[in-house]
Amino acid sequence: MSENILFLTGKLAEKSLHKVLEDMQPTEFNYRIAQLGVSVAALLTPQLIMRRLPDAGDADRIIVPGLCKGDLGLLEEKYGVPVVRGPDDLKDLPQFFGRGGREVDLSKFDVKIFAEIVEAPQLTVDGVVARAQEFRRQGADVIDLGCLPNTPFPHLKDAIDALKQEGFKVSVDSLNTDDLLLAGKAGADYLLSLTEKTLWIADEVDATPILIPTTPTNPRSLYRAIEVMLKRGKPFIADAILDPIPFGFTDSIVRYQRLRKRYPEIDIMMGVGNLTELTDADTTGINAILFGIITELGINAVLATSVSSHAVYAVAEADVARRMMYAAREEKRLPRDYSDGLLGLHDKRPFTYTPEEVQELASQIKDPSFRIITSKHGMHIFNRDGLYCDTDPFRLYPYLNVDQDGSHAFYLGVELARAQIAWQLKKRYSQDEELEWGCATLAKNPGGRVGHRDAALKEKRERRGEQGSESTACGPRRIEEAMQESTADEVSCGPRRTRKVPGT
Question: Considering only CA atoms, which of 273, 357, 279, 383 is closest in space to residue 317?
Answer without folding.
Answer: 273
